[in-house]
Design brief:
With 318 residues, the protein is mainly α. 60% of the residues lie in helices and 0% in strands. Helix 5 crosses helix 9 (214-226), helix 7 packs antiparallel against helix 8 and helix 10 (233-257) runs parallel beside helix 13. The longest helix has 25 residues, at 233-257.
Amino acid sequence: MNRLLLAAYPKSYRSRQGEELLDCLAEAYPGRSWPPPREVAALMRAGVQARARAVVDDAARPWWLDGIHLAALALAALALVPYLQDVWHWALHIDPGQHAIAFRFSGWYPWAAGPTRTRLLPYGLLPLVCLIALLRGRAWIALPAAAAMIWAGATLHGRTFFGDEGKAGLSYYGLGAPITARDLALSGTLCAACAVLALCRPRRLRRHSYRRLAPVVLAMFTAGSLHIISVSPVFQRGLFVLEVVALLGAWAATAATGDHRWLIPVAAVAIVRTQAIVVRPDAFMQSFPHLVVLLLLIAPLPALAITAQRRQGQALPE
């Protein structure tokens, strides 16, 4: 079981010091297959810091390009999350019936049993294609998908190619205010990030394994099987926890390295969230006071910048 802890460390660290770390754990905790919780937390934290340092030490690309890449990945995931159930039902030819997200009526797919108009594809396929392309470093594929998101959001009436979910209803409801497909700040920012990545020599982009999509597939299965829609409290709380964990991860990476690349995705998400709040201040979640939401969105940015500056100041004397 101790070997599972090594997954938190980068591959280069595992090849050099993995066996040594396992021997130390076996010597410190003989007869135990798993160290105490405090030791597990310390090892996981050290693994995250080691991964962050490995990213910074990689000189194959500038920090700002890596930061824009991370921002595009974050925005594509943010756009995909509300449509996890919809894409899962479409992929497996499941008629969602009354569990459809903000449909005017069920039966929009050609194979569905409901009496109705037909749509060919779910809107969620666009951010999914964008996310997969960005994971593989294919910004030239992600760019047209992001542009299609803008087109789908701008053509509010008279289009049934993707249906009207996400336009007529609250298909996305996250921290602060609902962001629907017709709010073009999210898709526009994503498209701009993809355009920059496509123009800046895409071969320099970091390529991730398809195994990174395992959490996405698991989330689709969970949302599709349990019919967890974006307006449900379970969805909202789960998304809030996920975003807090991601923010803490960015904070830990910044504190460990003093690098500014993790400021870019945090800033991109904060801008999109703040725009939704400014445009529709009456659409706040009732469980969050307005001031608290704004602080959660804006406060991490200067805090991350100060953390990076302090870390760089400590590194100079060394």
